[in-house]
Specification:
By secondary structure, the chain is α/β, with parallel strands linked by helices. About 45% of the residues lie in helices and about 10% in strands. It has 13 helices and nine strands. The chain has helices at about 15-20, 40, 50-55, 70-80, 95-105, 120-125, 140-145, 160-185, 190-200, 205-210, 220-230, 235-250, 260-265, and strands spanning about 5, 25-30, 45, 60-65, 85-90, 110-115, 115-120, 130-135, 150-155. The strands form two sheets. The chain has a six-stranded parallel sheet with strand order 3-2-1-4-5-6, sandwiched between helices. α8 packs antiparallel against α9 (about 190-200). The radius of gyration is 20 Å and the shape is elongated.
Length: about 270
């Protein structure tokens, strides 16, 4: 089976790497904080001291990192040592412009696939993520399928583009539910009654995400993703949502907490 290097073992990366181990792939892992690799090493993975060492002999390199700056830094380390015939599968949420930037830097003989994911930590652990694969993904589609169903989106960068669309809808929906509940509070409605009414309407999925307790997507990542979207085109409603999440992420106690933790803050009455 392909030798795989997995770079980035955060809330999503670690359970995704476990799916590859469970499938029997020889796996080398790297993370900026080395101790996060300990459990995977105990399960059979090898840990590399740096990104270059991790990818040197890999058939497939997977990156699942926090954002564009982290991906660029790793690219600086791995691009000089990727072997011809290797695939680099970029699964972070970085936007199509950065994907195109990376594609221009990839050496001859290496194939870049942008394949961000839909879903949170629960689906990552269960192998039920949705994979949005842009570019020539045919050679790695069977690897991506270890994480969940694969949707081919088109040319390089289209996976990253569609991921921005999906995340924009999710964050906008969560903020809208929070404000709807704030209105319900101001009108003196029973919380459960208001929540159930919203859950029975077109915002049902957003209601579930707004009150989720068993998943994780940090408020800092929400700010990053919404900012990528609002820099792409004029999105007045999402610019307002961005301000809401920026205010939440400015709180040290909430910055890395799940976006559901933003709901009580958005919902709170304004103080004078």
């Amino acid at each position: 089976m392909e030798k795989i290097a997995f770079l980035g073992l955060g809330h999503m990366g670690e359970p995704m790497a476990r799916q590859l181990l469970a499938a029997g792939h020889p796996l080398t892992v790297w993370n900026r904080t080395p101790r996060k690799a300990d459990d995977l090493v105990a399960a059979g993975a090898s840990a590399a001291p740096d990104p270059g060492a991790a990818v040197r002999d890999a058939d497939v390199v997977i990156t699942m990192l926090a954002g564009p700056d982290a991906v660029r830094a790793v690219a600086d380390a791995v691009l000089p040592v990727l072997r011809p015939g290797a695939y680099w599968v970029e699964m972070s949420t970085i936007g199509p412009e950065v994907v195109r930037e990376l594609a221009d830097r990839v050496p001859a003989g290496v194939t870049l696939v942008d394949a961000p994911v839909m879903g949170s930590t629960d689906k990552a652990a269960a192998g039920r993520l949705g994979i949005l694969a842009g570019g020539d993904a045919a050679g790695v589609e069977h690897v991506l399928a270890r994480f969940g169903p694969v949707t081919r989106t088109g040319a390089p960068g289209t996976g990253a583009a569609l991921k921005l669309v999906v995340n924009t809808a999710v964050m906008g929906g969560v903020a809208l539910v929070a404000e709807a509940m704030k209105l319900a509070d101001a009108l003196g409605l029973d919380e459960s009654t208001a929540k159930d009414a919203l859950a029975g309407g077109p915002l049902s999925g957003a209601v579930g995400r707004a009150f989720a307790t068993d998943v994780h997507f940090g408020n800092d990542l929400a700010v990053k993703d919404i900012a990528l979207a609002t820099r792409t085109t004029s999105l007045p409603a999402m610019e307002a949502v961005l301000r809401q999440f920026e205010a939440v992420a400015a709180d040290p106690e909430l910055v890395h907490e799940d976006i559901a933790r933003a709901v009580p803050r958005i919902r709170a009455p304004r103080t004078t």
